[in-house]
Amino acid sequence: xxxxxxxxxxxxxxxxxxxxxxxxxxxxxxxxxxxxxxxxxxxxxxxxxxxxxxxxxxxxxxxxxxxxxxxxxxxxxxxxxxxxxxxxxxxxxxxxxxxxxxxxxxxxxxxxxxxxxxxxxxxxxxxxxxxxxxxxxx
Length: 138
Prior knowledge:
eight-stranded antiparallel sheet, disordered N terminus
């Protein structure tokens, strides 16, 4: 187990090669394959953003039961998440991050080690929403 207080941040952009995890439960074989690869610069919600692409595939007894492809949009200096878009089992969705509270650099180190950035608001849209507007918490 790694001490998270001393863990180094991954280099940007983060790259996780395709990894498959498998298990057996109730006589069924389950596998999940995950990868995270850097993307390029793209326009998102009116801003140029860095991107990364996360892909998940879940299988049961060798048959695909769920897929998720997600693109994360963010600024890097300073880091600020802008939102996510993707598809889950073929259904497109988008989430826009409306507020984000980063680390407080002026806090004493002992307090900073116990705190993490917080997501304070999101908005989302799916094709199933007839009005086409973003909905979320603010």
